[in-house]
Design a protein that fits this description.
- With about 250 residues, the protein is mainly alpha-helical.
- Helix 1 packs antiparallel against helix 2, helix 2 crosses helix 3 and helix 4 packs across helix 8.
- About 35% of the residues lie in helices and about 5% in strands.
- A two-stranded parallel sheet has the order 1-4. Strands 2-3 form a two-stranded antiparallel sheet.
- It is built from nine helices and four strands; from the N terminus they run E-H-H-H-H-H-E-E-H-H-E-H-H.
Length: about 250
Amino acid sequence: MSAALHLAHVHQPPMKKRRPKRTGGGNGGKFAEIAHRIYQDDRADTQARQLLLATAYAVTMAALDEDTTVWRAICNALGDSIRSWDDLRRIVREDIPRYEPPRWGTDPLYQRCSGPRVRMHPDGPDDFRNRLKICGERTQDKVVEKDPVTGWHTNRWFCTRHRDHLVRVREQVRAQNQAAPPPVPNRGGLMPCYFDSDWVQVYTWAEGWEWEPPSYGYCADDWPVPGRKPVPQRARLRLVVSSQDLEDTQ
């Protein structure tokens, strides 16, 4: 049973075509199969999972006609969280492939100096500063180290007392950073894992200006992630809908 669905052809001539009517309810098995995959996908946060499930429902089970396009069905399935097309754009925009470096508060050692610890911290041997043998003081100065394979960033923080260590580390990683590849995306790209569409056009619509995919592609299944086996190529079920679908949401 195929697990990928086609949302829209958007490069067809801009002539309005009559959409085939679908009464819905006849593809419960397909929806159940895709929903199972979505719930097993640990890359999806709550919002991404809601969008994927709503899209799966819209393209497999929702009743479609001239007034209810696949995108309107997605909005209906998302419920009260969607009050305008701008809300839908915002949610789809969160799926745009991108790399997000370590952010504020996401790293337990965020803004903690990684300089060497000289004396035992009085909070005891189990304190993280003693266990990791680092200074651990708060600071705002850092060195960004880029992984030579993925291009991903690691922040190395230093306090004013360890300024000499910051300078030394910065020089040590300079050549490595210059040679590092563009970072592999680590966010978004989940919609193309489940549905077949012109994603450049869809993401351009969501972004509000012309969008180009990263060199690694727009599908998260295709991104080379260390420690993860390549995702097998999945068969695709094509569902052709009108070229007016995105235009109707303007």
